[in-house]
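Q: Sequence in, structure out?
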Amino acid sequence: MKIKTFEQTDELDRYAADRFAGLLDAKPGAVLGLATGSTPIGIYEKIIAKHARGEISFRRATTFNLDEYVGLPPEHPQSYAYFMRDKLFGSIDLPPGGANIPSGVAADLAAECARYDRLLAERPIDLQLLGLGHNGHIGFNEPDHALQGGTHVVRLRENTREANARFFGSMDEVPKQAITMGIGSILKVRAILLVVKGADKAEIVRQALAGPITTECPASLLQTHADVTVLVDQAAGRLL
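A: Exactly. Output:
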């Protein structure tokens, strides 16, 4: 595991964008694992700027997102499908069929999970971007006595819903379930880029990277992966 600390968030975002650009330059048909939330927004802005300058192309790439809220259609402003169109896909040359996001409104969620796992098996992810939740979740894999390996439906913990409530009109509007890529799928990707920003994440960063490996802190399982690069700003990395 490699840990890189940045004085400026702008530098962190640029480094992450450069990782994706370098991968696509070496392998234009790369499979990219993407994340949502506030953490990757700056990275996506840097990627869009690179694309505008002709430095990066997604014409032959494929993307997989980690998760989606159950019950929110792709047109909902707080769905992750909408987020990706707004923050990245609408500004790059990724083909319409190149993006894969689990459907939170599928009639049969179990079948949707199985479909997503089949796609992941067919197209292994070359580089997965991850954020880190305050309780140690990655994707929407919440702390528990046991974790599921494949894509599954998860009931979101209240602290996770509270953390995401700022994106909704009220706490009542925050979905109680999500469909998420499983820990096993995440650990099968070829390389991982874990990005964490802010002083409020310092303690969970310490637990995830330097604490015991436990399902009570799902991100701690990243310690078992052979190729993980952690990008933190000084505030998030202050306890390491």
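The mean pLDDT is 96.
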